[in-house]
Design a protein that fits this description.
Helix content: 10-25%
Order of helices and strands: HHEEEEHHEEEEEEEEEEEEEEEEH
């Protein structure tokens, strides 16, 4: 025991050297095995490559990378700077038409796939594909097809050349002819989904005016909200205020303590029952909001994108039928909401036809930037101040 106390440091050092020696032996053994494996693999690859002959150099007609860099039809962006390096990025790509066995991404201007030799067919000039010089939602390629459209004039997209109720932009996006008054899309092309309506009802019972004992003569006042604006409307039993019909009234009073007067007062807590078509009846207490029991979808019917005041708001639920109408053109179509996916905000509608329902139509999400004509920017002087009435002074 005394010997271990005197020489334990030497014993530990000896064990360390023994472990190091074992590790070196194992490392040498693994390296030898790896060398033999690489040598065997190299020989097998030589045999597979070209029967032990050198692999021929890559031909320029197979790999067209250098040619693509020098092609004047290609647009290249240089990302980065001289300090951090550069990265060439082509303007656009297209997937090879050989979807069965290739599917490689190719520069748009390639006529033949360098991998599978598949002909890519005739393509538009890559400089023009998708280009929209005036940012009016119509590509330059489409604007060049019609003499009344100008790729540098954004206002022509909102005009209705053939007077069929649809703007030039709406017709081109829908695939109809903006120059033919007999060619136009369905009215659903003007329909947009804005939001899901939940929470409290947009109607509040605010006042009850009693005119005698007969409830039919009583007048009810309501505040109705629509797109941020509040409108006060009046009605009697059986009449409609906005989208709600007044069904019944229950006169109630409640004693309460008024903090201001420090006295007991009688508070009017009367209730009125209203119902929106297709919904369950709702009971509104005087001065209080009521929670909506039915989820509704707020759709916008954009009659004229150049006039924001033409927006018509429609709040509907799944399964409900609703009309779309352009009175000036005597056109009216009925639709029904088939489904609503809250996770993707996707609304599906179908047109109601004489023989049943039409095909499913996906309602586009409302985007005021794209769906409404942008307001003109005010003219400013060199100092950045707007001119009086937006018009610069004449020299």
């Amino acid at each position: 025991m005394d010997w271990l106390k005197k020489h334990y440091e030497k014993l530990i050092f000896g064990l360390f050297l023994a472990g190091l020696l074992v590790w070196c032996v194992l490392l040498y053994s693994n390296l030898s095995t790896t060398d033999k494996h690489l040598e065997t693999l190299g020989k097998s690859m030589d045999a597979i490559s070209n029967k032990n002959k050198p692999i021929p150099a890559l031909k320029a007609d197979v790999f067209q990378g250098p040619a693509a860099l020098q092609d004047p039809n290609s647009e290249w962006k240089v990302l980065g700077d001289n300090k951090t390096g550069t990265l060439f990025d082509p303007c656009s790509f297209v997937r090879c038409k050989n979807l069965t066995s290739c599917q490689y991404l190719l520069p748009y201007e390639y006529k033949t796939c360098p991998y599978c030799k598949t002909n890519q067919g005739k393509l538009e000039d890559p400089k023009k594909v998708g280009q929209d010089s005036d940012n009016d939602g119509i590509t330059d390629v489409d604007e060049a097809k019609y003499p009344f459209l100008d790729a540098n004039n954004p206002d022509d997209a909102w005009l209705d050349e053939d007077k069929d109720g649809f703007s030039n932009r709406e017709e081109i996006l829908a695939g109809t002819n903006p120059a033919d008054p007999k060619s136009f899309p369905n009215l659903s092309a003007k329909l947009r989904f804005e939001r899901e309506v939940t929470g409290s009802l947009p109607v509040v019972f605010t006042k009850l005016t009693k005119d005698g004992a007969d409830q039919k003569n009583w007048v009810f006042a309501f505040d109705i909200r629509s797109r941020g604006a509040k409108v006060t409307k009046f009605g009697r039993l059986g009449e409609k205020v906005g989208d709600y019909r007044i069904l019944a009234v229950s006169v109630k009073e409640q004693k309460t303590f008024d903090q201001k007067t420090q006295s007991e007062v009688i508070k009017d807590t009367s209730e009125v029952t209203v119902q929106r078509e297709g919904d369950e009846p709702a009971v509104l207490e005087l001065g209080k909001r009521a929670e909506a029991k039915t989820i509704r979808l707020q759709l916008l019917f954009i009659k004229n994108g150049a006039d924001p005041k033409s927006l018509e708001v429609k709040q509907v639920k799944v399964g409900e039928e609703f009309p779309l109408e352009l009175k000036d053109l005597n056109r009216k179509e009925n639709y029904v909401v088939k489904s609503y996916d809250a996770s993707t905000s996707q609304v599906i509608v179908q047109q109601v036809l004489d023989k049943g329902l039409g095909p499913e139509i996906k309602v586009r999400a409302y985007n005021p930037v794209n769906d409404l004509k942008p307001k003109p920017k005010p003219l400013v002087d060199p100092a950045g101040m707007p001119f009086p009435e937006g018009v610069p002074p004449t020299p």
